[in-house]
Structure formats: structure tokens, C-alpha cells
Amino acid sequence: MSKTDGSAPFSYEGLDRVIHEKARLGLLTSLMAHPKGLAFADLKQLCGLTDGNLSRHLQVLQEAGLVEVTKGYEGNRPHTTCRLTKAGRRRFLDYLAVLERLVRDAAAAAGREPTPSSAGLIPGRA
Prior knowledge:
Helices cover about 50% and strands about 15% of the residues. It is α+β, with helices and mostly antiparallel strands. It has a three-stranded antiparallel beta sheet. A hairpin with a 2-residue loop joins strand 2 (about 65-75) and strand 3 (about 75-85).
């Protein structure tokens, strides 16, 4: 039996390992909140990462097609801008839907209803 036929309801196949890593989850959340993109320095500050960590995580996200990194200059200074791709936005929303299901399942298993802050994170999704 495959895991998608309902035989393994708690396998959460949609928990994408590329996204699920803590730093990349923070990066994608930051970029989701800023659809026009963010400067490298702003993203670094928002996520509390070093230059090297941020560069490496952006590389992973870029290779996966989730993030677009544009390098250029502002005046004589190098300027790097990062933004979600259309596919990255869709994949991240799909990932969030799986997280919502996980929260609902965990709350049900604990014998209580999910709280308003833990359910319905994505508008239009049940």
C-alpha cells in the first residue's frame, strides 16, 4: 500500500524537507510577508543568520526553485535582493496546509480542539 492511499495518515508526506529546516522556514516566511522581495541584509537581520548561513540556505532554496536571488549594484555598492518565485509561493502554501493538518491531528489526539491561533492559518483553507 502506498502512503497516499490513507494507510499512513500521520506520515505527513507534504512536510517538504527543503522547507522544513528551521532557518529556511524563517526565510520563506519572511519572503512571503514581503512579496516584492527583501535585501540580503534585511533578510539576514529578520532571520538572525550570519552571512554564510544565509548564503547557504538561499542557495538550497534557489536550487529547489523556491527563491530568486538577484545581484546588482546600488550606486557603487553590491546589492542582493531575494524573493519567492511563483512556484515557491505555491509550494510554501501547500506546506503550510500540511502543517495545519498536523496541528489539527495533534489537537484531536490530545482530546481538544485546535485554538484559533493554531487553526485556519491560511485564509480559504479548511
